[in-house]
Amino acid sequence: MRKAVTKRRRDPSRREQILAVAAELIASQGFHAVGMSAIGSAAGITGSAIYRHFDSKSAVLVALFEDVIDRRLRNAEIIAEHAEDDREVLAELITDHVCFSLTNRQLMHIYLREIHNLPEEDRRRLRRKQRRYLEEWLHPVLELRPGLNDAQAWALVHACIGAVQSVLYHNSGLPLTDLGSLMVAAAKGLLAIDGLPDVELSLDNYIVRVPPPEPVAP
Questions:
Q1: pTM of the model
Q2: Distance in angstroms (rounded) separating the CA atoms of residues 201 and 184
């Protein structure tokens, strides 16, 4: 009788370590300059073990971007579900996006710089998810600014998010809380909607902490 084959389970913390070090390497060297062996070595993985988690370097990049977009979309959907009204939805969305951008600059910068390196099918799929995220902004904007048509509302949402993400390319030297408050005010000003409530900037809740890789066994 043949013995049942036990499928080896993938360690989720190892996957997060791989993604964390991949983000650092890609941010500093660029996608094309980083190889799978370098990512594996930095994550404390030898040989072909990294391929147990990701089939290719493109798959690593897809996973990085998928995590970013999924987290953005999940937060937006939770906000829309629990907020009392459209003004609170927009205020929460702005604050959430500011906090995420400030505490995940590396990931956001890689996304904006490297998304063209994804396979076409993955790029289209992630763009569809990104549009769903933007639609969570669009609906309350249209409700609160009924004089706008769809094209104008889309342009306003993109301008608002673009203003927030401008911090990725400029080192102001300001403390994160001060910079965050400034970006929230700028985004609210662009929307030009009176009565948007203040929402606390909880930056610590947005920092992804990944344990360091284990040393490679000799």
A1: 0.82
A2: 9
